[in-house]
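Milestone 3.1: sequence recovery, worked example.
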């Protein structure tokens, strides 16, 4: 894998830019090993990072969004590669919307596994490293064995559920695969293939603001 650190830096730059100047109160949903949460904390933000397998530390809590009990409000909620495997996606987004202050934003980094098909899958599989340094298979290799058929939400479902609860302020398709590919395959290579129409983009970035109660009701039940 050639650019995992580069991919992480791109995510950090995007999230930091959307969170804005410190101090902001930030909730990260699905923090994993906590790299992004620590970056936000170092930038001067007040961070609470949750994950059932969260690491130890004062900013971390070992809990999922479903059982999270902090009343908020938060200025920003960040969900990086976590929404696609939340069991009750609608319930999780309802809770996130309720935790945000008025004018607060949800910042999402995700991947669209359903787009990893056809020419896109072939392009990626042709560029996989022969073997990972740890000896473990990459998620792309697991995808070829049916890993993505385990009930994860696809991008259409995620965007649909987001639309029901948030006003979209930003959405963009971005390169995602390059960090897991062989030496010599860069973000620029993947972006060029996307722009040429050779492959589909499989990463996306999203920023949204919760809809007000009246707007939410009208949005879900539009008047005739």
């Amino acid at each position: 894998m050639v650019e995992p650190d580069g991919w992480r830096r791109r995510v950090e730059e995007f999230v930091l830019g959307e969170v804005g100047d410190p101090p902001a109160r930030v909730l990260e949903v699905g923090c994993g090993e906590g790299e992004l949460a620590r970056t936000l904390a170092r930038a001067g933000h007040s961070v609470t990072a949750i994950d059932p397998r969260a690491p130890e530390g004062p900013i971390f809590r070992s809990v999922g969004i479903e059982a999270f009990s902090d009343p908020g409000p938060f200025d920003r909620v960040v969900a990086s590669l976590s929404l696609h495997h939340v069991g009750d996606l609608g319930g999780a987004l309802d809770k996130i919307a309720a935790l945000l202050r008025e004018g607060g934003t949800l910042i999402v980094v995700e991947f669209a596994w359903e787009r990893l098909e056809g020419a896109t899958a072939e392009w990626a599989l042709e560029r996989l490293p022969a073997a990972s340094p740890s000896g473990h298979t990459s998620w792309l290799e697991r995808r070829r064995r049916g890993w993505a058929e385990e009930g994860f939400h696809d991008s259409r479902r995620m965007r649909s559920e987001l639309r029901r609860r948030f006003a979209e302020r930003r959405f963009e398709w971005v390169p995602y695969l390059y960090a897991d590919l062989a030496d010599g395959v860069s973000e620029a290579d993947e972006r060029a293939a996307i722009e040429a129409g050779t492959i589909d983009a499989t990463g996306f970035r999203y920023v949204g603001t919760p809809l007000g109660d009246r707007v939410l009701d009208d949005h879900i039940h539009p008047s005739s």
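The helical segments are 4-19, 35-42, 89-99, 118-125, 139-144, 155-165, 187-195, 213-220. The domain at 4-211 is CATH 3.40.50.150 (Rossmann fold).
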